[in-house]
Amino acid sequence: MRQALRIERMIVVGWMAILTISAAAQTTGQLRLLMEPAGTTSYLLDGKHRMAQREVSLLEGPHRFVFWAPERRMLDTTIIVPGGGIRDIRISLRYSEEYIEHLSRMKSYASMQRWGRVVPPIVAGAAGVWALVSYLDYSAAHKDLVDLEDAYRTSADPAGINRLKDVEIPAAKDDFQKARTQTYLATGLFVVSAGAAYYLRRKTSATKAPVFEDKEKVRFDGLAWTPDIRGGGSWTAGLTIPIR
Amino acid sequence: MDGRLDHSHPMNGRSQYLLSLGAMLLMSACYKDDLDPAQLTNNPFDPEYVGENVFVSEGTYTETVFVPQIGNVLRQVIAFRVRSELFLSDVTYSVRVHDLENDQTILLDADPPGGDSFKYYKQNLVIGTPVCLELRLSNNLSAARAEEICVTL
Predict the structure, then answer these.
(1) How far, CA to CA in Å, does A43 sit from each of A76, A77, A241?
(2) What residues have CB less than 8 Å from B8, skipping those under 6 apart?
(3) How far, in Å, CA of A22 to CA of B131, rounded?
(4) 0.80 cut: is pTM over it?
(5) Is residue B40 less than 8 Å (CB to CB) from chain A?
(6) A239 touching B, CB under 8 A?
(7) CB contact, 8 Å: A199 with chain B?
């Protein structure tokens, strides 16, 4: 019986010695994470811990990291932590395809808004100014004709009357007709461009701006596993609802 | 900005714009291009004047004038009048007289000055035969339509 107790005691002491040795052998290391974009990048460590700090102390050995930042693509990688040392890791996250596509859509939208809402009113305004200037020219040309008619009535200079009838009145009539044609053209352009501006303004107003849905974020949120004290756990998922 | 909503009807601005545009077009349409130089023929100073005669003969007679160092001279006076009521405005003018009998041309001013009566003097009397004058209103060395008057002493 005593022999049995001695053996049992030796086994316990032996186990304790093994545990102590193994604990002493597993040292920690430090990781210094230089993440781009800075400030908004977060990561999931070993599928459990969602973190954002730049420096982290871990047991030496491989650890799984999943990095993510808004508008960026997730980076799933394994980093080996050196025991007792510090390791600098530089992480640069690429823009996600969805975000690049969103930027392209935003560019098209902005271009459409600019061309649809800004340019036509400018063209219409310019056409309006042209129409107004043409109309003033037209009025001046008409006044010239009236003045020449008055000049005919008040003139007592036969040679002057001849010049009036042969040169000045035909020239003034020509100017008048040109000014009238230009006024009609400018007014027509004004009407068309103003109509186009109105139509495009309505059309662009009805077009909604593209909304960016960060699918990478949804995927990243879905990866977070939160262990509970009973050994179980729960998955954390995120849902993005655009609020306008 | 101050929390109040703009309740103005969106058509108001457009209506005003269309109204002003329409007014502009209407005014444009009102300008007529009906001034035709060929139709301008009612000014007596116009070489292409087609109205009533401007010159009216007031007869002819003789008068004796004293010319220093020569003595008394008999001359023929041909009087005529300009119908200034046909003028379209108040103007000053002269009359260019072309004597068809001797082919001489002179420029006459009104006698008395400022009036519409003119006198043409011929030194050589023409008795019993009509004397014809071609008359034109004149200004700045140019002359209007020619009219002819004939008188017999």
Answers:
(1) 9, 11, 22
(2) none
(3) 156
(4) no
(5) yes
(6) no
(7) no
